[in-house]
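Example 9 (inverse folding). The structure is encoded as follows.
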């Protein structure tokens, strides 16, 4: 068993403590959480900008590790950093003129990939119609898979408020997708 393998057996809290001085521990954190960060970023800013957001997130995490006190779970802190990076990217995009569609992903099956990309684009467009608080709560629940209490910790909202935002957001998404010709 290598040292990297032994790092992968540690929980996030232990890895965070080690990652302050050991890049291998940080690498394990990145590998463990990158896919989830990417899913959340892609749902918020679109797949074309998600890679840049993920990079910004882990740069911010690396810089902030020394100051991370552990008052919240690492995952909660990471989701907050991810959402902040997404909002920063969306703000920057508003100041830049639209230059065409996002760069497509390399498809394995062109027909299926095209249909999936269309559905993802419609869902991303639908998410953008939600008020920011609802979009954030729905994304954290449906894309990141956080439970209501974790979403409350990330957003700083009361548990009942989180449930209400998710319920209202789901209803609005269902209506938007139905009007767009998709069966939710």
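The amino acid assigned to each position is listed next.
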């Amino acid at each position: 068993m290598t040292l990297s393998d032994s790092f992968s057996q540690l929980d996030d809290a232990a890895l965070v403590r080690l990652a302050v001085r050991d890049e291998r521990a940080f690498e394990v954190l990145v590998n463990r959480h990158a896919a989830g960060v990417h899913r959340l970023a892609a749902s918020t800013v679109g797949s074309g900008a998600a890679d840049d957001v993920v990079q910004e997130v882990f740069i911010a995490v690396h810089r902030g590790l020394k100051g991370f006190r552990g008052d919240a779970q690492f995952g909660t802190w990471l989701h907050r950093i991810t959402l902040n990076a997404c909002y920063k990217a969306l703000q920057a995009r508003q100041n830049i003129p639209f230059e065409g569609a996002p760069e497509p992903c390399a498809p394995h099956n062109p027909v299926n990939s095209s249909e999936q990309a269309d559905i993802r684009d419609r869902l991303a467009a639908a998410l953008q119609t939600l008020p920011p608080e609802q979009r954030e709560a729905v994304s954290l629940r449906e894309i990141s898979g956080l439970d209501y209490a974790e979403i409350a910790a990330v957003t700083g909202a009361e548990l009942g408020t989180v449930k209400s935002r998710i319920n209202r957001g789901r209803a609005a998404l269902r209506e938007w997708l139905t009007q767009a010709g998709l069966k939710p």
